[in-house]
Amino acid sequence: MPCKIVGIGEILWDVFPQGRKLGGAPANFTYFVKNLRQNGLTASRVGNDPLGAEIIDSIKGIGLDEEFIQVDSKYPTGTVMIKIRSGQPDYIISEKAAWDFLELSDSWKRLSGEADVICFGTLAQRSLKSRNTITDFLKLSGNSVIRVFDINLRNDFYSLKIISQSLELTTILKLNQDELELLKISDGFPHIKDDISFCRKLMGIYDIRLVCVTRGKDGSLLVDKNCHYDHPGYKVTVADMVGAGDAFTAAIVIRYLQGGTLEDMSILANRLGSWVSSHTGPTPELDEEIKRYLK
User: Which three-class secondary structure state does DSSP give residue 176?
Assistant: First the structure.
């Protein structure tokens, strides 16, 4: 039976120069979870407007369930203006969007208790309302649930306090190299130059089981309490990096649930993440080559 894997937080339109694409880390993450043959569910909120209706139609169109997408009668559907520079995205994120007002409804409470995995980040916690909802959702989940914190820092929409409180609830931590360096400074450990030692320091402070560090074209580092694995990455022609990290996280979660080794997790996560970065947009339709590989 497929595991129930929830992505909670923002859902929005990524607006590229060439047009709009469905976006938001939770939706991207659950899209790839679904393509890895597990039950990916997005918990988020859209406005009662044409853009919100389009998101719900798009969610259905990519094979996801819209049951846990709330509709807000007051605030609009979120958008992010994205410009790509040298393959890297710059973001202009609309404020006071519907996903800033997530509500812990009865159906969400049930979902929390049924979830096997919950993935969350910092962006949707920029508002107190959604932060409280996400925290309560995590705390209501079962003792065996795997909580995946994908830090995903965007602009100034985070604080060190939010990061620290989220780490207290984390089973698996995923972050990029820049975010790792920020944590070294903010946690008072800038003297720890070795990434593996610092990851293990975090694991000891917050009782985290696995830390995953993405390094762009240079692959990734995975660290648990007993060993680590460096993957050099796969060389591809980058279209844009939007969604690549979410694909990476989805692959890590699936292999983790299957009892895979750090090497197993790294190979699948880097393969899928690099494939996404070679395509435009966060949720490209899987071609036959990547489908064969995933099977």
Answer: strand
